[in-house]
Design goal:
52% helix, mainly alpha, two-stranded antiparallel ribbon, 7 helices
């Protein structure tokens, strides 16, 4: 039986799960770039990465489970981080004079924030879009007949006249 040629999607997965490469490890966008996809912008690479992440979710979850990052393991870790403590050192004239174990409030806050995000407990972010954004639009009219071009021109003229 002939060996199957690796696909870009498989290359993407290999880069995405490559712990030895800090640039691509668990980074969908960079993995798309390294896998050989062709795109004109980071937004396009981001979209390709998201699509691959969605399509390969089962394989990714299997890998996570095999590496001790199953859903139950993550829950246990989150609970332990909610009880995190740290040692604070107090110095006087350059010497440590006291130390105390205290709640690691920032670790606990960030853990709680992550837990709420994972549960979908936050309302979707609202983005205020005030004002108009002018984006250049290029339309190729070369395939249109002169009659079709004239019809479009007439429609645009009527709209401009009614708006102005």
């Amino acid at each position: 039986m002939a060996k199957r040629k690796p696909t870009k999607q498989n290359a993407w997965l290999k880069h995405f799960l490559n712990e030895g490469c800090s640039t691509t490890f668990l980074n969908a966008t960079e993995s798309a770039k390294r896998a050989g996809y062709l795109a004109s912008s980071d937004e396009s690479f981001r979209s390709i990465g998201y699509q691959n992440f969605t399509k390969l979710a089962d394989k990714i979850n299997t890998w996570l489970d095999e590496h001790g990052l199953s859903e139950s393991a993550l829950k246990i870790k989150l609970v332990s981080l909610l009880n995190a403590r740290e040692t604070k050192f107090f110095a006087h004239e350059g010497r440590v004079v006291d130390e105390r174990e205290v709640e690691a409030i920032e670790v606990q806050r960030r853990t709680l924030d992550l837990a709420f995000k994972l549960k979908g407990s936050y309302a979707p972010e609202k983005h205020d879009h005030s004002g108009e954004v002018a984006l250049p639009v290029k339309i190729d009219f070369s395939d249109l007949t002169q009659e079709e071009r004239d019809a479009i021109r007439a429609i645009l003229s009527r709209r401009a006249a009614s708006a102005g």
